[in-house]
């Protein structure tokens, strides 16, 4: 993956954060794609080969339709035998893939938005939702795996308990409100205002989006990729949204949005908000479908 600021610490829980992942494998797409020299089946087969032979932390890959091949990004932590492994896997694919080095490090972020505090971790609430008429919120799955109970301050009382969390594989968690926190369907804009959220939608390549988090507040950018595969130290996460929106540690679990449409939950990426970077998001529609929740 934005959220608007909600007055008050508890009301602010409708906000989002971001998480930066250890490694990533993405499918780069462009708003205006040129004809590709390889078929979709050929590229899907090539991608499967990368998943099997090059899925090491610090790597990412995606089909770039502008050139009709997989672009394999390798960060500065990939060296020695692991770098040789990736190079061989790419070479074996011939002209279906190419390598791109990046000076940044693909790593996870932990914290964000109008913060929610767990057992030794700080993350961000993504979007307030309901399930069976009861109030819940969505956040990142790696946050939900890290803590069973959540507070809206470091030493505050419990306001919610993790009911379901998926990570790796996907990166979403559903937390049930158990305390007396406000839970409006809006996002913190960090300027005293809020962005109301009315619906969930699928992101589109080239779409202008916003992200909100407690560390870096609100930042804008565009969707650059869909169906991204990220290789974390903890395992592989599939189906993510790729963006050129920056994020930093402390932004985990936060919201990606376009106007009143909820798009994603911050999962991870590389870079920072000084030099720029890329961030990946768990799609909200998939999280809603998997958990049986809906926006209020």
TrEMBL record:
<feature type="domain" description="Peptidase S1">
    <location>
        <begin position="136"/>
        <end position="287"/>
    </location>
</feature>
<keyword id="KW-0378">Hydrolase</keyword>
<dbReference type="GO" id="GO:0005576">
    <property type="term" value="C:extracellular region"/>
</dbReference>
<keyword id="KW-1015">Disulfide bond</keyword>
<dbReference type="InterPro" id="IPR018114">
    <property type="entry name" value="TRYPSIN_HIS"/>
</dbReference>
<feature type="disulfide bond">
    <location>
        <begin position="246"/>
        <end position="273"/>
    </location>
</feature>
<keyword id="KW-0732">Signal</keyword>
<keyword id="KW-0865">Zymogen</keyword>
<dbReference type="GO" id="GO:0004252">
    <property type="term" value="F:serine-type endopeptidase activity"/>
</dbReference>
<comment type="similarity">
    <text>Belongs to the peptidase S1 family.</text>
</comment>
<dbReference type="InterPro" id="IPR043504">
    <property type="entry name" value="Peptidase_S1_PA_chymotrypsin"/>
</dbReference>
<feature type="active site" description="Charge relay system">
    <location>
        <position position="171"/>
    </location>
</feature>
<dbReference type="InterPro" id="IPR033116">
    <property type="entry name" value="TRYPSIN_SER"/>
</dbReference>
<dbReference type="InterPro" id="IPR009003">
    <property type="entry name" value="Peptidase_S1_PA"/>
</dbReference>
<feature type="domain" description="Peptidase S1A alpha-lytic prodomain">
    <location>
        <begin position="38"/>
        <end position="92"/>
    </location>
</feature>
<keyword id="KW-0645">Protease</keyword>
<keyword id="KW-0720">Serine protease</keyword>
<dbReference type="Pfam" id="PF00089">
    <property type="entry name" value="Trypsin"/>
</dbReference>
<feature type="active site" description="Charge relay system">
    <location>
        <position position="142"/>
    </location>
</feature>
<protein>
    <submittedName>
        <fullName>S1 family peptidase</fullName>
    </submittedName>
</protein>
<feature type="signal peptide">
    <location>
        <begin position="1"/>
        <end position="33"/>
    </location>
</feature>
<dbReference type="GO" id="GO:0006508">
    <property type="term" value="P:proteolysis"/>
</dbReference>
<dbReference type="InterPro" id="IPR004236">
    <property type="entry name" value="Pept_S1_alpha_lytic"/>
</dbReference>
<feature type="disulfide bond">
    <location>
        <begin position="123"/>
        <end position="143"/>
    </location>
</feature>
<dbReference type="InterPro" id="IPR001254">
    <property type="entry name" value="Trypsin_dom"/>
</dbReference>
<dbReference type="Pfam" id="PF02983">
    <property type="entry name" value="Pro_Al_protease"/>
</dbReference>
<dbReference type="InterPro" id="IPR001316">
    <property type="entry name" value="Pept_S1A_streptogrisin"/>
</dbReference>
<dbReference type="InterPro" id="IPR006311">
    <property type="entry name" value="TAT_signal"/>
</dbReference>
<feature type="active site" description="Charge relay system">
    <location>
        <position position="252"/>
    </location>
</feature>
């Amino acid at each position: 993956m934005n959220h608007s600021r909600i007055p008050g610490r508890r009301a602010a829980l409708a906000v989002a954060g971001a998480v930066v992942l250890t490694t990533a494998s993405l499918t780069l797409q462009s708003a205006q794609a040129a004809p590709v020299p390889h078929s979709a089946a050929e590229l899907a087969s090539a991608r499967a080969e990368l998943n099997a032979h090059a899925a090491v932390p610090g790597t990412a890959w995606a089909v770039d339709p502008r050139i009709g091949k997989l672009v394999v990004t390798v960060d500065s932590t990939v060296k020695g035998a692991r770098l040789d492994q990736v190079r061989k896997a790419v070479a074996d694919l011939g002209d279906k893939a190419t390598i791109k080095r990046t000076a940044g490090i693909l790593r996870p972020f932990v914290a964000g938005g109008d913060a929610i505090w767990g057992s030794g971790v700080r993350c961000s609430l993504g979007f307030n939702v309901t399930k069976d008429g009861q109030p819940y919120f969505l956040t990142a799955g790696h946050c939900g795996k890290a803590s069973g109970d959540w507070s809206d301050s470091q030493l505050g009382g419990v306001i919610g308990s993790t009911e379901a969390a998926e990570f790796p594989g996907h990166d979403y968690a559903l937390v049930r409100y158990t305390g007396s926190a406000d839970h409006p369907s809006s996002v913190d804009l960090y300027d005293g205002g809020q962005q109301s959220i009315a619906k969930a939608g699928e992101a589109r390549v080239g779409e202008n989006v916003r992200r909100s988090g407690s560390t870096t507040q609100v930042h804008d950018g565009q969707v650059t990729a869909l169906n991204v595969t990220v290789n974390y130290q903890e395992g592989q996460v599939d189906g993510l949204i790729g963006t050129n929106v920056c994020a930093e540690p402390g932004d985990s679990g936060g919201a990606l949005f376009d106007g009143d449409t909820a798009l994603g939950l911050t999962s991870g990426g590389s870079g920072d908000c000084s030099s720029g970077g890329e961030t990946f998001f768990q799609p909200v529609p998939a999280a809603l479908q998997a958990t049986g929740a809906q926006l209020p």
